């Protein structure tokens, strides 16, 4: 709690944190001392884009054509609003090819399919609020398998 002496009928409070709830009340003073306090007014400051990237991005190669991405939300206190989803960007590493961009919900993993076999891809993720896209993770890379294991055949008996 903080008391501020104001000489007029309005006051601008600066330095408040984004998307944070604050409670205010006013007490009039005169030569006889303080009057009765107003009821508390609770206000939330406006939201903004996240000010930090998601954490702990990892890649898990599933097979020759798909990779699963896993991540954690940005650190607490950097969301600056309610996280509404995540923006994923990925591309082939070779020749800095075109970037594919997808937006997913609030889940913390995503299967990326229809990739080319034996190809290295780079991935990054950024959190979203209603205000837009926050800071993205650094690019990290993984390579799809050249071929998939065929578990429908029984290997021959060694001689």
TrEMBL record:
GO terms for biological process: cell-cell adhesion. CDD domains: FN3. It comes from the Eukaryota. Pfam families: fn3 (PF00041). Keywords: Disulfide bond. Coiled coil: none annotated. Signal peptide: none annotated. The keyword Iron-sulfur does not apply. Residues 1-48, 53-147 form the Fibronectin type-III domain. PANTHER family: NEOGENIN, PROTEIN SIDEKICK. This is Fibronectin type-III domain-containing protein.
């Amino acid at each position: 709690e903080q008391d501020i002496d104001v000489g007029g009928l309005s006051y601008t409070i600066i330095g408040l944190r984004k998307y944070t709830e604050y409670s205010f009340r006013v007490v009039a003073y005169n030569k006889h001392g303080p009057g009765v306090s107003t009821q508390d007014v609770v206000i939330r400051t406006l939201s903004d884009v996240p000010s930090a990237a998601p954490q702990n991005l990892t890649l898990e190669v599933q097979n020759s054509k798909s990779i699963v991405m896993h991540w954690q939300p940005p650190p607490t206190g950097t969301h600056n609003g309610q996280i509404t989803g995540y923006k994923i960007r990925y591309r082939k590493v070779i020749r800095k090819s075109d970037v594919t961009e997808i937006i997913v919900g609030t889940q913390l993993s995503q299967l990326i399919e229809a990739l080319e076999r034996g190809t290295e891809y780079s991935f990054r993720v950024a959190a979203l609020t209603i205000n837009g896209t926050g800071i993205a993770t650094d690019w990290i890379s993984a390579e799809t398998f050249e071929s998939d294991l065929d578990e429908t055949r029984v290997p021959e008996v060694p001689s």
